[in-house]
Amino acid sequence: MTALPTASIAEALNRDCVCQTLDTERLQQQWQADPALSSVNESILSQRPNLFSATSVFISQAQYQQMQALVSAVEQVVNLPAYRQTVLDDAPAIARQANPTRGVFLGYDFHLSPEGVRLIEINTNAGGALLNTFLARAQTACCQDMAWASAANLQLANLEKTFFEMFSQEWQRQRGAQPLRQIAIIDDEPNNQYLCPEFQLFQQLFQSFGMQAVVIDARELTWRDGKLWADERPIDLVYNRLTDFYLEDSAHQALKMAYEANAVVLTPHPQAHALYANKHNLVRLSDAQFLAQLGINEAIQQTLINTIPTTEIVNPAKADDLWARRKQLFFKPANGYGSKATYRGDKMTRRVWEEILQGDYVAQQLVPPSARRLQADGIEAELKVDIRAYAYAGEIQLLAARLYTGQTTNFRTSGGGFAPVFLMPN
Question: What angle do CA 162, 96, 216 make, to 5 degrees?
Answer without folding.
Answer: 50
